[in-house]
Amino acid sequence: MAAVKAEGPWMSDTEEFPFLDPALQKQAVKVKKMENLKKKVEWRKEKKQKQKLMDKRKHPEQTDIKDPGLLRQCLGPGCVHPTRPDSKYCSDDCGMKLAADRINKILPQRIEQWQKSPCIADEHGKKMLALIHHEQQDTHARLKDMECNFHKLEAIILRGKQQAVCKDEESNKGERDNINLQIFCVSCGQPISRRVALRHMERCFAKYECKSSFGSLSPTCIEGATRLFCDVYDPQSKRYCKRLQVLCPEHSRDPKVPDDEVCGCPLVHNVFELTGNFCCLPKSRCEHHYCWEKLRRAEVDLERIRALHKLEELDEQEKKVHTAMRNRAGLLALMLHQTIQHDPLTTDLRSRVDS
Q1: In 3D, which of 342, 340, 338 has the Cα closest to residue 111?
Q2: By C-alpha distance, which of 341, 308, 286 is closest to 117?
Q3: Which residue blocks in the chain are alpha helix, DSSP H?
Q4: Residue 42: phi, psi to the nearest 5?
Q5: CA-to-CA distance for 64 and 25, rounded, in angstroms?
Q6: What whole-number distance in Å separates Cα of residue 225 and Cα of residue 312?
Q7: CB half-sphere exposure, 23, CA atoms < 13 A
Q8: 202 vs 124: CA distance, rounded Å
C-alpha cells in the first residue's frame, strides 16, 4: 500500500504513514531522513564547486596549489608567474616579448642566408616581368595605331560625303533583273527579296538585340578614348549600357537619310585593295553598302576595346608577380621557411633539370 503524505506542517513523521505498523513507521521515517541528509550533502558539494569556479573566473592569477596542471610557468623571457588558463603565458605582454626576441635572433640569420643563395623564383619573376613589359609596349603601340585608324576613318567618311551624287543606270538595271530573287532572313527566317535583304536583316537583328541588356553599375572612364561604350543610364535597372555606341540599337538609332545624300563608301579592287574612288550613288538607293559607316566604326572601336582589355590583363599579371616577389622575402616567409644548404661549396641549389 502506498504511503500518503500529510499536507500540513504540523503533522509528525509517524503521522505521514498512518496505515503502517509502528515498527514499519519508524523504519520508513529513518529511510526518509537518510534521503534528506544525502540531498543536503550533495547540494553543499555542488555549491562549493560553483563557488570555486566563480573564484577562478574572478581571480585567474590565483591558482589552486593542489591542481598540478595550473602550475605551469609562463614562457615569457624572465617571467616566473604561472600561466593563465588555456594559455602558455601569464599575459599578452609576455607573448609579445617572446615573439620579438625570436625575431631578433632568427631573422638576421635568415636574411643572411637568403642573400647568399640565389632565389630561382625571383629570376623567373623577373623574366615574366620583362615579357609583360614587352607585351605592354606592343599593346600600347597597337592602341595608338587603332586611334590613328579611328581618325583616318572619320576623314574618309568626310571625303565620301563631299562627293557629287550621280545615278548609275546599269546598277538600276541589275536591280530590276534581280527583283524576283528571294532569300531567308538569318534572324527571323522570313523569305525576303534580295533587293531589301540587307536592310531587313539589319533592322530585324536590331529588334532582337533590344530585348537583351548589357550594363554595369558604373560608367566607363578611359583617358584618351572617345566614342566607345554607350553609357546611357537606365533608371529602371539602375545600370549603364555597355554596348558599342555606334551599334546600340536602343539608344542610338540611325537618322533618316535624305534623298540627296551620297553613299560615299570607298571602292575596293580584289576585296582589299583601295582604288581611291567612292560610291556616288544616293545613300537611300545604294544596296551594296548599306550601313557601311556604322560597321566600319564598330570594327575600329572593337579593336580598340580588345587592346584596352589586353592592357588591363597585363596590368593584373604585373601586380600579381610584384606581390609574389614582395611576399617571398617578407618577414613571415623568412621566419616560416628555410632552405638547408648541405654543401657549403655549392651556391646554386637548382637541380639539373631546372638549370
Answers
A1: 338
A2: 341
A3: 22-58, 92-116, 120-161, 169-177, 197-209, 292-328, 331-336
A4: -60, -40
A5: 48
A6: 15
A7: 0
A8: 51
**Residue 4 pLDDT > 50:** no
* Angle, vertex CA 227, rays to CA 279 and CA 207, nearest 5: 70
Scan for cell 615569457, then name that residue: 76
Report the alpha-carbon distance of residue 62 to residue 72 in Å, rounded: 13
3-class secondary-structure state, position 238: coil
Phi and psi dihedrals of 117, rounded to 5?
A: -95, 135
Radius of gyration of the chain (CA): 45
pLDDT in tens, 40-54: 888 888 888 878 777
Amino acid identity at 265 = C
Cα angle 262, 268, 270; round to 5 = 155
**How big is the CA angle at 48 (ends 47 and 49), to the nearest 5 degrees?**
90
* Secondary structure in 3-state letters for 139-178: HHHHHHHHHHHHHHHHHHHHHHHCCCCCCCHHHHHHHHHC
Residue 162 near residue 146 (C-beta atoms within 8 A): no
Residue-by-residue DSSP string for 39-57: HHHHHHHHHHHHHHHHHHH
Residues 6 or more apart whose Cβ sits within 8 Å of residue 295: none
Residue pair 82/73 in contact (Cβ under 8 Å)? The answer is yes
Q: What is the mean pLDDT of the chain?
A: 77
Question: What sign results for the dihedral spanned by CA atoms 156, 158, 162, 165?
Answer: positive
CA–CA dist 291, 252 (Å, integer): 14
Judge residue 263's burial from the number of C-beta atoms within 10 Å of its C-beta, 0-12 exposed, 13-18 middle, 19 or more buried.
buried
Amino acid at 39: K
pLDDT of residue 214: 78
Segment 175-195, tens digit of pLDDT: 555 556 788 877 787 887 777
Query: How many residues in total does the chain contain?
Result: 355
The residue type of 250 is E
CA-to-CA distance for 294 and 203, rounded, in angstroms? 13
